[in-house]
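Look over this record before class:
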Amino acid sequence: MTRVLIPSGALGLGYDREALARGIAARPDIIAIDGGSTDSGPSYLGRGVSKYSRASTKAEWRGLMQARADAGVPLVIGTAGTCGADAAVDWLFEITRELAEEMGQRLRVALLYSGQAPDAVAEAFGTGRVAPLPAAPEIDAELVRGCTNIVALAGAEQIAAALETGADIVIAGRTTDTAIIAALPLMRGDNAGAAWHGAKVGECGALATTRPETGVIQIDFDDTGFTLTPLGKDTRATPYTVSAHMLYENSDPFILYEPGGYLDVRHSTYTAVDAARVRVEGSVWVPGPYTAKLEGARIAGYQTVGLTLLRDRRYVANARDWAADVTSRAAARAVERMGIAREEFDVELRLIGIDATLGALETRAADPVEVGVLAIVTAPTQAQADEIGKILNPYLLHHALTEEEPMPTFAFPFSPAEMSRGPLYEFCLNHVLVLEDPMSAFRLELREVGNG
């Protein structure tokens, strides 16, 4: 039997410290936590940085490092620093080094790097070892070489290799959300279907319970299934909350693809052990070719943004027409005065309070008191985006609905009104890399830190 303690859905979201203490008292075999996701868009991967504050990350990581010391078991984090890029692994390692010295701990740390050299991926693409997933964008070697960061998603095999070093802490780059939980049960010979299914259910901590905000859960794996135990006060898992998690971020509620095969839960059973715990059996792991999913981000342009506020009733009522006219006039002036082709840049005005989120898909109508107009300019260079933003400025401040009416004045909440956002990143890979050796695309390093 293998007991995995999961403090939270991600480092940076917080966790219930009393529940964590209960988990440590239950003597887990490993503490596993996710470090990130692609939920917040491609910028973090493109830049190789974390979206969470360093101060918050350090505070939460300190608590987990102390919990690891109290339990005497490995602490593993996957997708370190939100994006799992090599720079993000180094960022969390530096925090770990600082904490080890502050806490008087002497530690062996395994660093699992998932970063891929764009030239190497381009070469693999040319030899047919990079295959598209459904709805993947068209790519070529030039596009791949233009990526600022590419990562491969590690699976259980790579995490197992890191654990086999005897490391106290494993800081992994990009991994599948499940790999850090499934690795040790698989290493110990627990049921493979249960290992992957329990890992899928537990990837987001207490999200598969009645009180997701409590964070901390415990999963016990054995040779026939797994049992999930919530550790937060008054928190329950039910057959419904546990089975429903197969729908989370997964296109098929019964099949989950991972490196080296897939999980099949069509014949799984979910049984309430008591008022809080759920037992799952019948999950099946189906081995297959070994592939690692690739994620890549590249610069798609540069952006300048601005914001103005409409409060005049007539302009609020006619905001769409006003925005369309401003967009057309400003774009035409940019073409005329800058010599830039219209297809090279984009001017977008999003109407906050009307349809800024859904645009043309919005079905609900309202009568807003005011409308925020968010101007977004995207161009090949920052200088061009800034220039077009300045061309927009007088329109956003004074543009009238008709030529026969007095010039209005709208409200800029900031001065200057234009703000340079810098590079705009986009995801450009939704492909898999075929591997004969699971470790061939990953790099493992060991470091000693601390002074305990």
Notes: The chain has a mean pLDDT of 95.
